[in-house]
Amino acid sequence: MTITTRFATEADRPAWERMFLAYATFGKTEQTEDMRARVWGWIMSPTAQTRCIVAETEDGGLVGFTHFRSYERPLPATVGAYIDDMFVDPKMRGRGVVDLMIKAVGDFAESQGWDVVRWMTREGNYRARAVYDRHAEKTDWVTYSLRKQE
Asked: Distance (Å, rounded) from C-alpha 84 to C-alpha 102?
């Protein structure tokens, strides 16, 4: 089976919504229809930062997506790419879909002159980390999220 990647188009919305909801469920994140509509609006907007690459089979079925965006890096005075989300349909895992999506983001970043592509995952997400380790170096940076003030 041949799998290719490309940027999402308006026609991809139903399949993307199904996968994005599955991704939120996997991540134990509550998500509403309004939230998905907002994210889709970002993806389709020529002025928003969020971009979406989808993976599709030769029959046109979507089997994965990745959301990414550029970000300015003040210390080196460069621009990088940050992958916010990656998801592959569970039935298609282990077939190289993530490899293709990472490569697509990397190729796009290179075409834009961005100097780094970064992402994070849960410590215990060993299956995904095994794939990521083939493409990237695990950094020693620790991520923090500011607590909401009460």
From this structure: 12
Q: Tokens in use for 80?
A: 């990088």
pTM attached to this predicted model:
0.93
CA distance 44 to 105: 17
Alpha carbon of residue 66 to chain centroid: 3
φ and ψ of 98, to 5 deg: -60, -40
Question: Residue 122 corresponds to which amino acid?
Answer: R
Tokens of 114: 């961005």
- Closest by CA position to 69, among listed 52, 55, 88, 46: 52
Structure confidence at residue 50 (pLDDT): 98
What's the pLDDT tens digit per position in 98-150?
A: 999 999 999 999 999 999 999 999 888 889 899 999 999 999 998 888 998 87
